[in-house]
Amino acid sequence: MSDLTGADEKSPQNKITLRNRLLTARRSLSAIDRATAATELQGQTLALVRRSGARTIAAYVPSASEPGGPAFPDVLRAALPPGGRLLLPVLLPDNDLDWAEYTGSLATGRRGLQEPTGPRLGVTALRSADLILVPALAVGRDGLRMGRGGGSYDRAISRLPSPGPTVVALLFDHEALDEVPAETHDRPVHGVLTPAAGFSARPF
What we know:
- The protein contains 4 helices and 11 strands, in the order H-H-E-H-E-E-E-E-E-E-E-H-E-E-E.
- It is of the alpha/beta class and 204 residues long.
- The chain has a single domain, classed as NagB/RpiA/CoA transferase-like (Rossmann fold, 3-Layer(aba) Sandwich).
- The chain has a 7-stranded mixed β-sheet with strand order 3-2-1-6-9-10-11, with helices on both faces. It has a two-stranded antiparallel sheet with strand order 4-5. Strands 7-8 form a two-stranded antiparallel ribbon.
- Helix 2 packs parallel to helix 3.
- The chain is globular and about 45 Å long.
């Protein structure tokens, strides 16, 4: 689930232009290319999960155009160790994110997004995660992440302690950029995962 561009978009024009270009590129991918990238990225993600030893993972349900594919939550859940948990987001009316454990069941929530059906754990539940996988449209070499403009994940990441969980953005390969336009509220990530290159650390 992504943070969505809405009527309250206040990004500078260069950010809006880049966002639109990246969204157009995602929509232009063929179904075969998208499925191939999803399979590769799922494999890269599982390798990262094994290396990290994470027991509680926070992730998201990819939309049709996002990296990871519709099976992404089930792939992650199957990789958890005994007693492990997968947390997925629930979009709140103010665009903030609540969280719930994914136990295999999703329902349609706000804005048509797929959300877990379990008990809500609160906006601070993200602090209990060992590894956090977030959507993004692009990430610069400095780790700054650009989303879709709703600010949902910037707010969620801003609540994490320092040091805290490892935050990794999932991208298509061409979305790992030298730099992205940034504003004061934009939060950096510790690394990116792409289908071909796998994990690449960022200086957060």
